């Protein structure tokens, strides 16, 4: 009598993270993982085209993503991603960090965005000085990484 041995392998299912900043309720997500871009050095606005299109679709109107590189007094370089309506106000902003072969975007509170505008008059590449969040985001008055807005001394080109 022949004995057959059957082995079953367990399949591991992983889901791809959402590639847009908006949730189904037309509000901004507090955190987003951007896969396909593994370092801050390779992050460009062109690399964010798919994320921008998906965010626009979820919000129901055209939006822009503007990448800003901040200058700090201690030579660290925080990266910000600002979400704006295509011809209007700032809807929200995110601090971008490297995270597990991808980039993680953590939402910055509206108070921090307002303080940056108050300190610098405007943000580079963004015509509006008005903060009109899709979903108000309150909380800490510092960046998610712990950086105080007072450490920001300008923006890199």
> Helices and strands: which structural class?
alpha+beta
Query: Got a strand count?
Result: 6
Taking all residues together, what is the mean pLDDT?
82
Please bin the fraction of helical residues: 10-25%
Q: What best-fitting shape do the alpha-carbon axes yield? A: globular
| Sheet having the most strands | 6 strands, antiparallel
Which residues sit in consecutive blocks of at least 5 with pLDDT less than 50?
1-15
Number of domains: 1
* N-to-C SSE string, H for helix and E for strand: EHEEEEHE
Account of the protein in words:
The chain is of the alpha+beta class and 157 residues long. It has one domain (31-156). It is built from two helices and six strands. The protein has helices at 49-59, 110-120; strands spanning 31-34, 63-72, 79-85, 90-99, 102-108, 152-156. Strands 1-5-4-3-2-6 form a six-stranded antiparallel sheet. The termini are far apart.
Characteristic terms for this protein:
157 residues, 6-stranded antiparallel beta sheet, 27% strand, 6 strands, globular, disordered N terminus, alpha+beta
Q: In a few lines, what is going on in this structure?
A:
The protein has helices at residues 49-59, 110-120, and strands at 31-34, 63-72, 79-85, 90-99, 102-108, 152-156.
Write the topology of this structure.
Elements: E1 31-34, H1 49-59, E2 63-72, E3 79-85, E4 90-99, E5 102-108, H2 110-120, E6 152-156
Antiparallel strand pairs: 1-5, 2-3, 2-6, 3-4, 4-5
């Amino acid at each position: 009598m022949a004995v057959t041995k059957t082995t079953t392998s367990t399949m591991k299912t992983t889901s791809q993270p959402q590639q847009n900043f908006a949730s189904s309720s037309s509000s901004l997500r507090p955190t987003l993982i951007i896969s396909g871009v593994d370092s801050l050095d390779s992050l460009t606005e062109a690399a964010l085209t798919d994320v921008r299109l998906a965010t626009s679709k979820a919000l129901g109107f055209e939006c822009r993503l503007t990448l800003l590189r901040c200058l700090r007094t201690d030579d660290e370089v925080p990266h910000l991603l600002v979400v704006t309506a295509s011809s209007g106000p700032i809807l929200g902003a995110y601090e971008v960090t490297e995270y597990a072969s991808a980039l993680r975007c953590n939402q910055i509170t509206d108070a921090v965005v307002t303080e940056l505008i108050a300190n610098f008059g405007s943000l580079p590449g963004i015509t509006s000085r008005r903060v009109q969040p899709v979903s108000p985001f309150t909380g800490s008055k510092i960046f998610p990484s712990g950086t105080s807005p007072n450490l920001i001394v300008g923006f890199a080109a």
